[in-house]
Design goal:
Elements: E1 4-6, H1 11-19, E2 25-27, H2 42-58, E3 66-76, E4 79-81, H3 87-97, E5 101-112, E6 115-127, H4 132-140, E7 161-165, H5 168-172, H6 176-184
Parallel strand pairs: 1-2, 1-3
Antiparallel strand pairs: 3-4, 3-5, 5-6, 6-7
Helix pairs in contact: 3-4
Amino acid sequence: MANIVLASASPRRQELLRRIGIADFDVRVPEADETFPEGLTPPEVVAHISRGKADAAAALCTPEEIVITADTMVFLDRQRLGKPADEADALRMLTALQGRRHTVCTGVTVRQGDSCLTESESTDVYFRPASRRELLAYIQTGEPMDKAGAYGVQGKGALLVERLDGDFFNVMGLPVLRLSRMLEKFGVLLLN
């Protein structure tokens, strides 16, 4: 198997690669432009940024290496919710999400030399109604502070999620089923 490079510093993405059997990979994080043109749909936004990250990562890799990049965003009514600036911002986001549906979109790119494939995955997440006290208690855990939308579904943030429609791992930051199918096109078979 060709050497795999994850162009992401995300510990969650690293964990997910290991969970699906990719234990031997390098991490190289490029400087990438994360701006995007106006008028793109949420799936197009994350695909655009993921592709840009792959283009930037190509300079750090050999043509034989397989590079994986991803970009995950949370959208509420087509408005992007990034990482909270502070606890007040986290409370604002969590208050807006509680009792409602929002969408988590991840763009994924797999690149090897001049061959490049970019796709996106969307998952609808439904938050249960939560009290201000519960939201403040969650913020005090510190978990929301480095996560888009101010929650981590893989941690205590799961206590706010009523249900989701789609790929759970997408909400963590890497849709592993989609990624596995993309990797197959580059000769990487994870169930072989």
